[in-house]
Amino acid sequence: MNIDNAIRLFSDFLTASWENVIPLLLDRPYTTNESSINDWLQVNWEFLVERKVLPINKYLEIYGEGADFYGESSRITDIHSLPNYSIKVVLCYNNQTDVLNNINVYSNNFIFEKLVGFENGFYIDNPPFNHVLVHDINIDIDRVFSIDKVKFELQLLPMQ
Question: Which of 29, 95, 120, 131 is deepest in the core (most CB within 10 A)?
């Protein structure tokens, strides 16, 4: 399976499971709600996406904020491992609307952050997860695009 298909399936998984999982995570003692949610997102990212598209001992950058489960690592599995790959987000057409900043964008230099919902001009961590939050490395800002308007590609990170 390629990364584009895996992320689209992950979007469907988050949308389908969110309403059932979040109540379980909000009631956990001794953790903050956001921390528990980020841990759950990260572990599922590692198991469902990373393991599906990469060979053993190869790793993606963290999903969103990453996990806080171990403190020193943002990963849940293989906590001492460093990422080998990032995910580049490529616009399907040269002129797409960044719905967060409400402008047309022509560049393709975006790094994947996470999947989000979008409502009333803001991205939200609620379903449906049909938008993608990216970082525009050209001008160091966040942008949001409809998942239907982008493609996802693996990008090898420089040697650390």
Answer: 131
pLDDT in tens, 119-160: 999 999 999 999 999 999 889 999 999 999 999 999 999 975
User: Residue 157 in contact with residue 58, Cβ under 8 Å?
Assistant: no
Beta bridge partners of 154: 87
- The mean pLDDT of 89-111, rounded to a whole number, is 92
Interacting residues of 41 by C-beta distance below 8 A, sequence separation 6+? 14, 63, 64, 114
Q: What letters, b where the CB count within 10 A reaches 16 and e where it falls short, cover 57-93?
A: eebbbbbbbbbbbeeebbbbeeeeeebbbebbbebee
CA 33 centroid distance within chain:
19
Q: Give me the pLDDT at residue 24, please.
A: 84
Name the band, by pLDDT with cuts 50, 70 and 90, for residue 36.
confident
Compute φ and ψ for 113, nearest 5 degrees: -110, -60
Q: 122-124 and 110-119 as β-strands: parallel, antiparallel, unpaired?
A: antiparallel
